[in-house]
Design goal:
The complex is a heterodimer.
Chain A (H helix, E strand, L loop, with lengths): L2 H13 L3 H22 L9 H5 L3 H17 L6 H8 L3 H35 L8 H29 L2 H19 L11 H6 L12 H25 L3
Chain B lengths: L3 E10 L2 E11 L4 E5 L6 H8 L7 E6 L10 H4 E4 L11 H11 L4 H10 L15 H13 L5 E5 L7 H16 L3 E6 L2 H7 L2 E6 L2 E7 H8 L3 E6 L2 H10 L4 E3 L5 E4 L3 H10 L4 E7 L3 H21 L1
Parallel strand pairs in B: 3-7, 3-8, 5-6, 6-7
Antiparallel strand pairs in B: 1-2, 1-4, 8-9, 10-12, 10-13, 11-12
Helix pairs in contact in B: 3-4, 4-5, 8-11
The chains are: A mainly alpha, B alpha/beta.
């Protein structure tokens, strides 16, 4: 079976269930809105990183990316939908690759567009604070942000394939990202820098000050994502549909 | 032509054996009814044929090939497993377009099967607004999409209205007459008797029978003859003279057990019995099935005692 028609089928699946494109719209809206607020906020700390300030909308926006990845997969685990999908495409590895591509490509495009928009609106608010950002730093921030959001969507997709439920996935990931990283975060020392969200967000800093650089941080997140995707692939191959 | 070959197939879920050393073939050109009570292993067998569940041992192939190796499975096999499988927020048409896209089947064909299954304009509505019967029709439309040579329907008449049941009977007949291999599961006897040519009967995962419907019934239910007469005394003596017993029923008709209408008809007319009604009382699939399962239950009970 060739890959292209299977990918087309998976993309059509995402496009034809309204909540899924709506989640990508929410990703765009939440990220740019929060970045805009951060841009004009009076409480901005003069010592804070201006690139990170401009892209701070990613913190809420990534929840939408996680939801997108989780929901796109979990739809297969309702009422035997997966059986119908695998009856049409019995080569499970091929099907999984098409599903992940259909999640990754739109998330990446939305992510890049979102990061660019967030940066532009936030810069308008930050004014002189953002003046020192170089083009290279801003490009790295935007590209990194798109990649980060894509990795998070795939992370959720892999975990959902393993757990077979978006609710289970999101109730693991959302508290993990919102609570563990933020609250325990600074107390736990350097280990927390290797958490999937913390590591990946280094790419959003103008001047990273931890162990990880922008691209090594993103690589750490990619490893987390790869682990989740492999776990999902293992589950999909091994279990009865 | 493609047949479904099930060879020594066994599937265990933990300690429970859902399918137990099952061997049978489903041949093209006829409708094979797949009978058995709920939980007998019919759906499991179908999932095993489609490669959705892995067999514990044995094999299930289509024309000698594993389902997973088919290059274009929807063009070879059309299956209806669960009418609920379509996503509620998608339209019926989009549901079919998704399946069609994976095989490069044009949208024209999607509209064709929507028409063929009587959904037509309802295809533009979201699946969550469908009745159970409409979902069933959508599932059948999905199975027909690739014009497959093998058809497998799991309880297709579930939720269909009387019109729908007549429609599906005609459809199954047509598909078999076109030379396709048709396997249809059901737990309803009279329903199955109305469309099947051949039967595969399961009980607790094991094969109980694999035979033509007519033979299945004739082997298990003795034929009887039903008579009404205006002169019972002459009837009874004429039958008794030839060694037949007649039993009278409260509404006034008589039955002669274990007899053929050809013989009894000649006999009573020869004796000058006035006949108001004479009919062959052939066994039903239900009677035959109950007889079979009764033997099975006895067999199982004996086994446990031993």
């Amino acid at each position: 079976m060739p890959f292209a028609p299977v990918l087309r089928a998976e993309w059509l699946k995402i496009r034809t269930v309204r909540p899924l494109p709506a989640t990508l719209l929410a990703l765009f809206a939440a990220t740019t809105a929060f970045s805009a607020i951060a841009g004009v906020s009076d409480t901005s700390d003069p010592e804070s990183d201006p690139l990170f300030m401009a892209l701070s909308g990613v913190a809420p926006g990534q929840i939408a990316a996680l939801s997108f990845g989780a929901m796109a997969v979990s739809a297969e685990y309702h009422n035997g939908a997966l059986r119908l999908s695998l009856a049409a495409v019995p080569r499970r590895g091929l099907w999984y690759a098409a599903k992940l591509t259909a999640i990754a490509v739109p998330t990446l495009l939305t992510g890049l567009l979102t990061a660019l928009a967030a940066l532009l609106v936030a810069r308008a608010g930050l004014g002189p604070e953002a003046a020192g950002l170089s083009l290279a730093e801003q490009t790295r921030g935007v590209v990194g942000c798109g990649l980060y959001l894509t990795l998070m969507a795939l992370f959720a997709a892999g975990l959902t394939t393993l757990l077979r439920s978006a609710v289970a996935t999101l109730s693991v990931l959302v508290p993990f990202i919102l609570v563990v990283s933020f609250v325990i975060g600074d107390a736990a020392g350097t280990a927390v820098e290797f958490m999937p969200d913390r590591a990946g967000q280094v790419v959003l800093l103008e001047t990273p000050d931890g162990i990880l650089g922008p691209w090594t941080g993103l690589a750490v997140t990619a490893l987390w994502t790869a682990a989740a995707l492999l776990a999902g692939a293992w589950s999909l191959r091994r279990r009865d549909a | 032509m493609t047949s479904i070959d099930v060879q020594d197939l066994t599937k265990e879920y933990g300690p429970r054996r859902a399918v137990d050393h099952l061997t049978f073939r489903v041949l093209p050109g006829r409708v094979t009814g797949f009978l058995g009570p709920n939980g007998a292993g019919k759906s499991t067998t179908m999932r095993l044929v489609l490669g959705l569940d892995r067999p514990t041992s044995g094999s299930a192939t289509l024309g000698g090939r594993d389902y997973a190796t088919l290059p274009q499975p929807l063009r070879e096999v059309g299956a209806l497993l669960d009418a609920q499988a379509a996503h509620g927020s998608r339209t019926g048409r989009d549901h079919l377009r998704v399946l069609a896209a994976s095989h490069r089947i044009p949208d024209r064909r999607v509209d064709e099967v929507l028409e063929e299954t009587g959904l037509g304009p309802a295809g533009r509505r979201r699946v969550r607004t469908y009745s159970l019967g409409m979902r069933q029709r959508l599932g059948i439309a999905a199975a027909l999409l690739g014009d497959p040579r093998v058809i497998m329907f799991d309880e297709p008449s579930n939720g269909l209205d009387p019109d729908g049941i007549v429609w599906i009977r005609t459809l199954l007949r047509r598909l078999a007459d076109e030379g396709r291999t048709v396997l249809v599961s059901s737990h309803l006897m009279n329903e199955t008797a109305s469309f099947a040519d051949h039967l595969v009967v399961l009980g607790r995962g094991r094969l109980l029978a694999d035979t033509p419907v007519r033979e299945f019934i004739d082997a298990r239910v003795r034929p009887a003859v039903r008579i009404r007469t205006s002169d019972p005394a002459v009837l009874v003596s004429a039958l008794a003279a030839h060694g037949h017993d007649a039993v009278e029923h409260p509404d006034g008709h008589w039955t002669v057990a274990d007899a053929r209408v050809e013989e009894i008809g000649r006999l009573v007319s020869g004796a000058g019995v006035p006949i108001l009604e004479l009919a062959a009382d052939e066994g039903t699939l239900e009677q035959a099935y109950l007889d079979l399962t009764a033997t099975e239950t006895e067999f199982a009970a004996h086994h446990q005692e031993a």
